[in-house]
Amino acid sequence: MHFQSLFVPVNNNDQLHLMSINQNAHHQGIPILMIHGMVEDGRIFYHRSGKGLACYLAKQGYSVYVADLRGIGKSRPKIDKHSSHGQTETIVTDIPALINFVTAHSQQQKLHLIAHSWGGVNINACLLRFPKLAQQVLSGVYFGSKRRVRVKNLERFFKVELFWNRIGLLISQRKGYLPAKSLKVGSENETIKTHMQCVRWVKHDAWQDTDDGFDYALTAKNSTLPPIFYLAAVNDNALGHQSDVKLFMQESGSENSRYMLLGKKQGHLLNYDHLNMLTAFEAEKDHFPEVLKWLAAQQK
Predict the structure, then answer these.
(1) Whole-angstrom Cα distance, residue 223 to residue 279?
(2) What tens digit of pLDDT does each residue of 80-115 get?
(3) String of b and e for 215-229 (b: at least 16 CB within 10 Å)?
């Protein structure tokens, strides 16, 4: 595996980090851009040892690019109380910059997009806002992606309702950002703006931008996104529950899309959860081959 850190400037201050992963030093395969979710970075997709979905797909000949969103991972500078960017900047500025960089760097006109959790929400919002950008996308693959959390159980109450929507938000407001790392609720911190905008989308049916009022839900009803493969895990009880993943799929427009639930009853080796659907050793035998088949089918 060849690993190379690339940096994409988005303004005079901020640079986004991309980990380029290839089987050889030449970028010859169709590009795949991977976008992580909240309170994590791109390492959810890869390990330097060669494990993870990014490495798996690179071994199959794809040119893989794994993003760290603004202020996260190896992106510069890191999030602190002075960071003013949020979800809107991710959707309007950063993801378009990443897509344009990847197509130019790989010298390919089109690419695939892969996301974990909230990364899928940010991507769909971006593609709905910028239809010309959506035309560059062959397909998407989303792991545990949901926008609204409507499932009702104890885990949802503690993780989402109590911490994310209430206690965590109070901490963000006091600190000026969400110190997820020191709170041990994630591997990366988030800005207060991102946190507040995410909470609003999680809680409310309306899918609108809080900065300029852009209506994503209405746009989705009048447009068609690229084909998307939505995967949910049977033991993901709150952060990407199967019913909430389906809800997100429906409101984004499910035309040309596919849904898969990962669990033993469905014929898989494990009852997967929100994280190990990407990190478990068994995933390479279980559903990573399904992802590979999906990508190949969208290239015909």
Answers:
(1) 34
(2) 999 999 999 999 999 999 999 999 999 999 999 999
(3) ebeebbeeeebbbbb
* 1-42 residue pLDDT tens: 999 999 999 999 999 999 999 988 766 799 999 999 999 999
Give the predicted TM-score (pTM) of the model: 0.97
Three-state SS string across the chain, please?
CEEEEEEEECCCCCEEEEEEEECCCCCCCCEEEEECCCCCCHHHCCCCCCCCHHHHHHHCCCEEEEEECCCCCCCECCCCCCCCCCHHHHHHHHHHHHHHHHHHHHCCCCEEEEEECHHHHHHHHHHHHCHHHHCCEEEEEEECCCCCCCCCCHHHHHHHHHHHHHHHHHHHHHHCEECHHHHCCCCCCEEHHHHHHHHHHHHCCCCECCCCCCEHHHHHHCCCCCCEEEEEECCCCCCCCHHHHHHHHHHHCCCCCEEEEECHHHCCCCCCCCCHHHHCCCHHHHCHHHHHHHHHHHCC
Residue 255, pLDDT above cutoff 90: no
Model pLDDT, residue 27:
65
CA dist 288 and 206 (Å) reads 33
**CA–CA gap between residue 89 and residue 79 (Å, rounded):** 14
For residue range 43-88, list pLDDT tens digits in order: 999 999 999 999 999 999 999 999 999 999 999 999 999 999 999 9
Q: What is the model's pLDDT at position 64?
A: 97
Give the pLDDT score at 61: 94
